[in-house]
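The instructor's notes for this session suggest beginning with a concrete chain rather than abstract definitions. Hand out the sequence below and ask the class to guess, before any prediction is shown, which regions might be ordered.
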Amino acid sequence: MSALVALAAEDLVWNGANGFSGWVQPVRMQLRQEDGVMKVHVTGADPSLVISGLDVNASDYSQIEFEYRGKGFPTKNTGQIYFAGKGQSLSQDRCYTFGSLRPDGEWHKAVITKLRKGKDSWLDVGKITMLRFDIIDQDSGDIEIKDFRLTNPQTENAIYPGEDDFADISAAFLHIVRFGKSNKTPFWIGKSNQFDHRHRGLFRIPLETLIPKGSVSKAVFEMRLALHYGPTYEREYIVEAINEDIQKFKALDVRADATVIGKVKIGEYSVCEPVRLDITSAVNAALEKVNSAITLRVRSEPEENNDPCPSGAVVDLNTVRMIFQ
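After discussion, reveal the predicted structure:
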């Protein structure tokens, strides 16, 4: 097995300290290590490298993270992580697509969380012996990798909405509504077509377990996208706390009185990078009233409705949570 750095609990890390051990077989890219980072110069479409020499229990890890900065590639881009077990070859059936990375020359962290879902999932393989890292599919760009790791983050200080704690409601047409997680239609925020540009997402975060505590020192709302639509690379969304203790969603909640908490930018990169907002004050205000939950509403108004295309975001409901201290 490659010489890896073991961090708290189970993280496996490739970085400058271990020389990115086992990173081999660069295809349509040039690799070099410098100043503790791996520098990737893309020379053609669909560049890739292999991470070899592994003997890793898939069940020990739930996500892949890598810290990067890049420039010179399109703002809309995609990449893949392939994985294989003993005696297996790399296959499209054992592959997770991610995107988009930011080409702004600043450091960012990308997170891939769907390792345990789908056909021939990460868990089905048992032991991972090889990874292939297709960092982007596009044919140009320079990317630096500071840190690449397999990790299993602890979630005991996180609260997830229940199955019925989601609503996707059109502020323009109240009959266009989706309640609950089990509904298979896309969960929109933003504009779904040329007629309706005011889809709002509602997320109810249960607080019953925190009522005895009385307050929190920190609370952060977090989510990721399943997909980003439209010609705009990113858009600013408003996050509000509804001023009532909602027990069960109804269509009119899309227009309920609410207090603005803040704004978040959501874009192409929000599939890999979590969208986060500090909601500490709003949570403590709800706990002071002994509310059973805090309900957040995410909306994209004001937004011009000047084209016939969808322009918004589809939320991955499995990633919606509140992290607290």
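Then share the key points. Residues 1-9 have pLDDT under 50 and may be disordered. The helical segments are 122-125, 280-288.
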